[in-house]
Write a structure and sequence with these properties.
mainly alpha, 11 helices, transmembrane helix, MARVEL domain-containing protein, transmembrane
Length: 356
């Protein structure tokens, strides 16, 4: 069943533009579940890392409160993503709509948190470096490190952290809005299910069926690489019983008549043989045993006698042909002698038993 295309354009969710059209036509329920699950884990880890950073000696006291606020905001984002898992699992339009707006808000909050953290990193450079140097004061007093070594290390550490913070800011900005775009597309699918790509069950095409012959007989034969345009195709499967291959049957101008069928099992019913004046001879019949003796026809063919071996019969045929060539069978006595039986029948015991 083909679905009709919607009359109105899709709702103006601007975040859908981040997804290609082919992706928006597939079911995004599982995608939203996976994204919400990993987003919740990521936000939970980042929030816990901010709380852990507040207890380090290298962190200035002025950054303790901002880091606490950032941790709370990330925990709120964790709760939003957990709600998104439940909404995607239920696939309810009101729940998914609420999750979409919460995900968009979460993307803005996460991006703002990273911007604040990067800004604090650059504006509080002096305090961050000073706190780092103070954390190594015990090692400097013991003579393990010098003041110049500690100062150089803390400045290099701040510089390397700057590159990492900028990379995390850019990555977080794009990935958060991309996840919100997926939530918007999923909401659009729930509100307009006709936009989904559906699989319509169709019968298999006949062009993939196994052919019953090399090529269709109502089409001209193809050109063979040997140049034999008039090569004979293989016999069709509808004529497996003895019909000879002919040019008329497999002519390229007209289709063959499908009249050949397998013969029914068993002997034919009575009266069929009489209605067929020209029966087809049996090719498996014995050519010697079923022939007539030809007696009275002037030298008919001999018949193999019961119990006679092939060599004896061949010898008798040779003698018969020799006598026929000499003209012995022209006389009645010669024919009687030639076709006389050589078997000896003893009737005395049977006659005696009958008399008794």
């Amino acid at each position: 069943m083909q679905r009709q295309s919607p009359d109105a354009p899709p709702p103006p969710y601007a975040l859908q533009r981040f997804l290609p059209s082919t992706t928006r036509r597939t079911n995004l329920r599982n995608v939203v579940l996976v994204i919400a699950f990993f987003s919740a884990i990521w936000a939970l880890i980042v929030g816990a890392s901010y709380l852990r950073s507040r207890n380090r000696d290298s962190l200035p006291a002025s950054l303790a409160m901002p880091y606490l606020v950032l941790a709370i905001l990330y925990f709120v984002c964790t709760a939003i993503e957990i709600f998104g898992i439940a909404a995607a699992y239920r696939a309810s339009v009101p729940l998914v709509r609420a999750y979409f707006w919460a995900a968009a808000t979460s993307a803005v909050v996460v991006s703002a948190c990273e911007v604040v953290r990067t800004t604090l990193h650059f504006t509080k450079k002096g305090e961050i470096v000073a706190a780092c140097i103070d954390s190594y004061s015990t090692d400097v007093a013991r003579g393990t490190y010098s003041n110049s070594d500690v100062s150089s290390f803390c400045n290099d550490s701040w510089r390397n952290s700057s590159y990492v913070d900028i990379a995390i800011l850019v990555f977080t900005f794009f990935i958060s809005f991309f996840f919100a775009s997926v939530a918007a597309s999923f909401l659009h699918q729930l509100q307009h299910p006709e936009t989904l790509r559906t699989q319509v069950a169709q019968a298999a095409s006949s062009q993939y069926a196994y052919p019953l012959r090399p090529f269709d007989s109502n089409l001209p034969p193809p050109m063979y690489p040997q140049g034999g345009q008039h090569q004979q195709p293989l016999p069709s499967y509808d004529n497996p019983y003895g019909v000879s291959v002919s040019e008329e049957k497999f002519s390229s101008s007209e289709a063959p008549e499908r009249t050949g069928y397998a013969p029914p099992p068993g002997p034919p019913p009575p009266g069929v043989a009489a209605s067929n004046p020209n029966p087809i001879p049996n090719p498996f019949a014995d050519q010697v045993e079923h022939q007539g003796q030809g007696r009275g026809q002037g030298g008919g063919e001999l018949v193999r006698r019961p119990g006679e071996t092939a060599d004896e019969f061949e010898q008798r045929q040779h003698e018969h042909d020799h006598l026929a060539a000499a003209g012995v069978y022209d006389l009645e006595a010669g024919r009687d002698d030639a076709f006389a039986s050589t078997e000896t029948v003893t009737l005395e015991p049977r006659e005696a038993a009958r008399r008794a």
